[in-house]
Design a protein that fits this description.
Chain A: Belongs to the transketolase family. The complex is a heterodimer of chains A (279) and B (301). Chain A is built from 10 helices and 7 strands. Chain A is of the alpha/beta class. Chain A has one domain: Thiamin diphosphate (ThDP)-binding fold, Pyr/PP domains (Rossmann fold, 3-Layer(aba) Sandwich), CATH 3.40.50. The radius of gyration of chain A is 18 Å and the shape is globular. The relative contact order of chain A is 0.17. In chain B, a hairpin with a 4-residue loop joins strand 3 and strand 4. In chain B, helix 5 packs across helix 6. Chain B contains 10 helices and 10 strands. Classes of the chains: A alpha/beta (279), B alpha/beta (301). Chains A and B meet through helix 1, helix 3 and helix 9 of A and helix 4 and helix 6 of B.
């Protein structure tokens, strides 16, 4: 197994931890300024996005259409603020653009648009479709004899969509070892606990039954995310990473609170959130 | 017997990327009599026929006896001699092992020199040597298409096929490197030229070669471009050297870094200058005429 950047001990993830903090601050500010948006599922995905964009993916923000680049699809498109903040910090566009979230005429709409935002590989927001696109891209790589990987971030609530499982079945059938699905398993969706709305457990067994390698990790641990993503190098099947996360992570009054799925913080709440996140 | 201090230098890079030339040049600059070079290719666990039967390339860690390699690196660090296996690239099989003694510097070069964290801790300094795929293609075409009768398409396809294993098994080691040396084609107005530019990267907060170069740049001594970039989850300071280093610039740099006083009479390419910087890090004293004497001009000869 490849080693995982802990040679410098706790220092190993210093840069990523700092970047995750910056991205969380952006998310809070963007949604507060827009007056609407989805903070809960954006904050839960920050370490996943940070690990991918700053640690693992082969990408060059200056050449966003390089045919050899890795692809990322935010299938849970409502977490767009997390993706925008990550792309801006990674250098795809100016950080100043972030404050235009959800404004008329802004490229940064409530759900990501591949025609308007550099670095966005697929327009998403209508849940359940991203993995099908990812399967297509992964098969395309095979046809083109290219060696990029495709990463798809799914919401756990999103896994209630039937189309996810059609795509999962196809990926298993074609043994797409260049495809990685990451499930942001925060346990909550708009109407409450995922298990109350439509039972997902046992989620790992479901993916396994469709022919995937399944790895369960703490979705806020860089060390665990890196190890899981390193294991893809040895995979003969598609990899599903079930990332246990906390909805609203980093802002205590949003953590695990279902009513923060899709509302904006007011002025006082924004100040409190930023104070908690720190510089 | 008195034990001399041994400095272990780990170097990782793809083969066909000019790594052997880089190692050779570095050894020349440090003084060949002071350097032992260990090539990780000798530690293949499967010979060519066996790899073919299993269906893996040498880039896969499974094709290599990394356990023995770890053991040997630790012995070399303690100043002990090792009985090193020998792999014959011409026949793709193993020869008789040979005894190797550590000298003042031991350079361990290969595809997996610091794949494991424990192994990485053994080295005094770790360099990831990275060559842009367009340069690999250019060099391989020059060599294989010219002398071995391959078509350009065959060469390009072979290099692309390697890329998957490179990204899976070789590149992740970049996260352990103290210094990342990247060679890139120098493009002017979107057209790539024969010239090569060099990027040197080390983690932000490190106080080593790149940090010193940035200081020299800010003092107006060194013409280069400085920026930050992310490599495998670490934010790096990067210095990009594009221009030839003129004798007065070299003199000022050599002066500032305490290498010596005399100036070179010729201009140095960014590649040659990079070699001086790396060798200089190990206390190598810069001398005038070094390049002419030692003949290390070619990047990929």
């Amino acid at each position: 197994m490849l080693s995982t950047a802990s040679s410098a001990g706790r220092e190993a993830y210093r840069d990523l931890e700092k970047r995750a903090r910056v991205i969380r601050r952006h998310i809070v500010n963007m949604i507060a300024e827009a007056g609407s948006g989805h903070p809960g599922g954006s904050l839960s995905a920050v370490e996943i996005l940070t690990t991918l964009y700053f640690g693992v993916m082969k990408i060059d923000p200056k050449v966003p259409d390089d045919p050899e680049r890795d692809r990322f699809i935010l299938s849970k498109g409502h977490a767009a603020p997390a993706l925008y903040a990550t792309l801006a910090e990674r250098g795809y566009f100016a950080v100043e653009t972030l404050s235009s979230l959800r404004r008329l005429g802004s490229p940064l709409q409530g759900h990501p648009d591949m025609r308007k935002v550099p670095g966005v590989e697929m327009s998403t927001g209508s849940l359940g479709q991203g993995l099908s696109v990812g399967v297509g891209m992964a098969l395309g790589a095979r046809l083109d004899h290219r060696y990029y990987r495709v990463y798809v971030l799914l919401g756990d609530g999103e896994c209630q969509e039937g189309q996810i499982w059609e795509a999962a079945m196809a990926a298993g059938h074609y043994q797409l070892n260049n495809l990685v699905a990451i499930v942001d398993r925060n346990g909550l969706q708009i109407d409450g606990s995922t298990e109350t709305v439509m039972t997902l457990s046992p989620l790992a067994q479901k993916w396994r039954a469709f022919g995937w390698n399944v790895v369960e990790v703490d979705g806020h641990s860089f060390s665990e995310l890196f190890q899981a993503l390193d294991s893809v190098a040895y995979a003969h099947k598609p990899t599903a990473i079930i990332a246990r996360t906390v909805k609203g992570k980093g802002v205590t009054f949003m953590e695990g609170a279902v009513d923060w799925h899709g509302k904006a913080p007011d002025r006082k709440q924004r100040e409190k959130a930023l104070e908690e996140l720190g510089e | 017997m008195m034990r001399r201090k041994t400095t272990l230098i780990g170097i990782v890079g793809d083969s066909g990327a000019g790594k052997s030339t880089f190692v050779n040049n570095l050894a020349q600059l440090l003084g060949k009599e002071r350097v032992t070079v260990i090539g990780l290719d000798d530690y293949h666990s499967l010979d060519r026929a066996e790899r073919k039967a299993v269906g893996i390339t040498p880039l896969n860690p499974r094709a290599n006896n990394l356990g023995l390699f770890m053991e040997h690196v630790e012995r070399l660090r303690r100043g002990e001699k090792i009985l090193k296996p020998v792999y014959d690239h011409d026949t793709g099989t193993f020869g008789e092992p040979e005894w190797v003694k550590p000298r003042e510097f031991v350079i361990c070069e290969g595809l997996h020199s610091f794949l494991f964290e424990k192994l990485g801790e053994t080295y005094g300094y770790k360099i990831y040597y990275d060559t842009h795929r367009d340069l690999k293609i250019r060099w391989k075409i020059q060599r294989d298409a010219a002398h071995r009768g391959y078509t350009v398409e065959q060469v390009v396809q072979e290099i692309r096929q390697r890329q998957r294993d490179i990204r899976n098994f070789v590149e992740p080691q970049m996260r352990h490197a103290d210094l990342v040396v990247s060679l890139l084609p120098h493009t002017v107005n979107g057209q790539s030229t024969e010239a090569i530019k060099v990027r040197l990267a080390e983690r932000t907060g490190a106080n080593d070669i790149v940090h010193r170069l940035i200081t020299l740049h800010s003092r107006g001594i060194l013409p280069c471009r400085c920026f930050k970039e992310w490599y495998w989850g670490r934010e790096m300071n990067v210095v990009e050297l594009t221009e030839e280093i003129t004798p007065p610039v070299l003199e000022a740099v050599a002066d500032a870094l305490g290498w010596g006083e005399k100036a070179e009479e010729k201009e140095l390419t960014p590649y040659q200058f990079m070699l001086l910087l790396v060798a200089g890090r190990f206390g190598n004293k810069y001398k005038s005429g070094y390049w002419e004497e030692r003949g290390c001009y070619a990047v990929n000869s």
